[in-house]
Design a protein that fits this description.
162 residues, two-stranded antiparallel sheet, 6 helices, 4 strands, disordered C terminus
């Protein structure tokens, strides 16, 4: 079901508060997470004096000097939360659509990839016939005996849908 595929928005936001970009890594948005991290580092290098953090840690100084980095961090947290919420919404809409049609629709990928098409025998056929997980439909690593996305154990290793 979708509850295993859904990512929790509050957890993405919490992780994003621990480190800029970490919420995006949780959502498997690697490039976006690295982009936010790079933006935070660039902002700190360009707009925050090097001695400002040391002065704050010693108990003095003005916390407002770190405002540019905090603004980037808050924007990153908000972005991770919104991404997780929209992904969760798309997943729920796809589940509702499948439930309403009695499962006649294929998997509606929440990441925007092409949906799978069911055959008359009930098997799912992917447009490019790649190795996919029978549970979540995501691409599999041929060297693993489980799905790295949903952790479903594969009885005979990865299968090709054709």
């Amino acid at each position: 079901m979708s509850s295993q595929r859904e990512k929790r928005p509050w957890l993405a936001a919490f992780l994003g508060t621990l480190a800029t970009g970490l919420g995006h890594f949780y959502l498997r948005r690697w490039k976006r997470g690295l982009g936010w991290f790079a933006a935070a580092v660039a902002t700190s290098v360009l707009f925050v004096p090097p001695e400002a953090a040391r002065t704050l840690l010693d108990g003095g100084g003005d916390p407002a000097t770190l405002a540019p980095v905090l603004i980037v961090g808050v924007a990153s947290v908000a972005d991770a939360y919104v991404l997780a919420r929209s992904r969760q919404h798309r997943s729920r809409v796809a589940d509702a659509r499948r439930a309403a049609t009695g499962g006649e629709y294929g998997r509606d990928d929440v990441d925007g990839a092409a949906a799978d098409t069911p055959t008359s025998t009930g098997e799912t056929v992917t447009a490019d016939a790649e190795e996919t997980c029978p549970h979540c439909g995501k691409e599999l690593d041929p060297d693993l005996d489980f799905c790295p996305w949903c952790t479903t154990r594969l009885a005979d290793g990865p299968r090709r849908t054709e």
